[in-house]
C-alpha cells in the first residue's frame, strides 16, 4: 500500500511538472504577456533551464552512482573536466578569439537537433517508467516514432530561435516556409503512426496513466508548431523537460537523509553556470563552450539512465523500487 501511494505521488508530480509549463506558457502567449517582464517566469527559466543541467552534478555526490561511473572514466570524468577547463579558459581569453558566424550557426543548429532528440528520449523513458509501474511493457518502436513530433518541433522553431541567438533577423527567412511544411507533415505522420501503434497494442496502453503520459509525449512539441512566439513555444516544453529531470535526479539521489554533498555540487554548478550566463555576451567562444557543456549533459545522461544495460538498470530499479515492485 505504501508503494502504491508513492507511485501515485510520483505520477501526479510527473504530470504536474510536465503539464504546468506546457499549458501555462501558451496561455501567457495568448494573453500577449511580455515574456521578459515576469520575475517568476525568469526564475522558472533559470531553474528549469540552467538548473536542470546543473543538477547532473548531484549524481557525483552519490557513492552508488560513482561506482557505476568507475569503468567509464573517460565519459564521466575526463570529458566533463576537459569541457569545464575549456570553458574557464574561454571565460578568460575567449573574447580574443572570435568565432565566425557560419561556424556558430552550424554548431547551434546541431545543438537544436540534439536537444530535441534528448528531450524526446527522456519522454520515452518516462512512458516506460509509468508503464512498468503498472505492470506493462510498451513496444520499443515507440521510442523511434516519438522522434517524428520532435523533428517537427525543431524544424518549426529553428528559424526563429536561430535568428534570435545570432541577433540577425534575416537568417533562414527563405527556408522558413518549407521547413514549417515539413514540420507539419512530420507531426501529422507522428500522430497517425503513434495512434496506430497504441491501437494495435491496446493491452500495453490500457492503463490510464500510461496512456496519458504517452499522449503528453506525443503532444510535447505542439507549442512549437502552433505558436508564433518562439520564446513561449520553446520554453513551454524546455521547462517541462527540465522539471521532469529535476524530479528524476532528486529521486535518484535521495537517501534516508539530505545529502549535503549533492546539494553543494548542485549549488556550485548552478552558481558557476549563472556566472557564465552573465559573461556570455560578445564572447562567441564562451557561447560555444556553453553548448558543449550541454552536450556533456546529454552524453552523461544517455549512459546513466540506459536501463537496457545491467549497471544502470540495477541502480535505477533500486532507487525507484516503489515503481517496479
Q: What are the key terms here?
A:
about 325 residues, mainly alpha, 15 helices
Summary of the model, kept short:
This protein is mostly helical. It contains 15 helices and no strands.
Number of strands: 0
Uncertain stretches: none
If you average the pLDDT, what whole number results?
86
List the secondary-structure elements in sequence, H or E: HHHHHHHHHHHHHHH
Query: Which word captures the global form?
Result: globular
Residue share in β-strands: under 5%
The separation of the N and C termini measures: 11 Å
Q: Compute the number of helices.
A: 15
Q: What share of the residues lie within helices?
A: over 70%
Largest sheet, if any?
none
Please indicate the count of domains: 1
Radius of gyration, whole Å: 20 Å
Give an overview in words.
By secondary structure, the chain is mainly α. It has one domain. 78% of the residues lie in helices and 0% in strands. It has 15 helices and no strands. Helix 2 packs across helix 12 and helix 7 packs antiparallel against helix 8. The model has no long low-confidence stretch (mean pLDDT 86).
Amino acid at each position: 500500500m505504501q508503494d502504491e501511494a508513492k507511485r501515485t505521488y510520483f505520477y501526479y508530480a510527473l504530470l504536474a511538472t510536465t503539464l504546468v509549463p506546457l499549458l501555462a506558457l501558451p496561455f501567457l502567449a495568448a494573453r500577449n504577456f511580455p515574456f521578459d517582464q515576469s520575475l517568476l517566469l525568469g526564475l522558472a527559466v533559470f531553474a528549469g533551464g540552467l538548473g536542470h543541467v546543473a543538477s547532473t552534478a548531484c549524481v557525483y555526490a552519490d557513492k552508488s552512482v560513482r561506482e557505476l561511473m568507475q569503468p567509464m572514466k573517460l565519459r564521466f570524468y575526463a570529458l566533463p573536466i576537459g569541457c569545464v577547463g575549456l570553458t574557464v579558459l574561454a571565460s578568460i581569453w575567449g573574447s580574443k578569439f572570435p568565432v565566425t558566424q557560419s561556424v556558430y550557426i552550424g554548431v547551434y543548429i546541431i545543438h537544436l537537433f540534439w536537444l530535441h532528440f534528448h528531450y524526446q528520449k527522456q519522454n520515452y523513458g518516462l512512458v516506460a517508467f509509468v508503464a512498468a509501474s503498472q505492470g506493462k511493457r510498451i513496444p520499443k518502436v515507440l521510442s523511434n516514432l516519438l522522434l517524428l513530433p520532435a523533428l517537427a518541433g525543431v524544424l518549426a522553431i529553428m528559424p526563429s530561435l536561430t535568428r534570435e541567438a545570432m541577433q540577425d533577423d534575416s537568417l533562414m527567412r527563405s527556408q522558413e516556409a518549407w521547413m514549417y511544411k515539413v514540420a507539419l507533415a512530420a507531426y501529422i505522420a507522428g500522430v497517425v503512426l503513434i495512434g496506430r501503434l497504441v491501437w494495435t497494442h491496446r493491452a500495453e496502453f490500457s492503463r490510464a496513466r500510461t496512456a496519458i503520459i504517452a499522449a503528453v509525449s506525443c503532444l510535447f512539441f505542439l507549442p512549437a508548431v502552433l505558436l508564433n512566439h518562439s520564446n513561449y513555444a520553446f520554453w513551454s516544453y524546455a521547462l517541462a523537460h527540465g522539471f521532469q529531470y529535476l524530479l528524476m535526479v532528486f529521486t535518484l539521489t535521495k537517501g534516508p537523509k539530505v545529502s549535503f554533498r549533492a546539494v553543494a555540487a548542485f549549488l556550485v554548478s548552478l552558481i558557476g553556470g549563472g556566472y557564465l550566463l552573465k559573461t556570455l555576451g560578445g564572447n562567441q567562444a564562451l557561447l560555444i563552450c556553453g553548448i558543449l557543456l550541454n552536450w556533456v549533459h546529454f552524453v552523461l545522461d544517455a549512459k546513466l539512465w540506459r536501463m537496457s544495460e545491467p549497471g544502470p538498470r540495477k541502480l535505477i530499479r533500486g532507487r525507484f523500487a516503489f515503481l517496479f515492485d
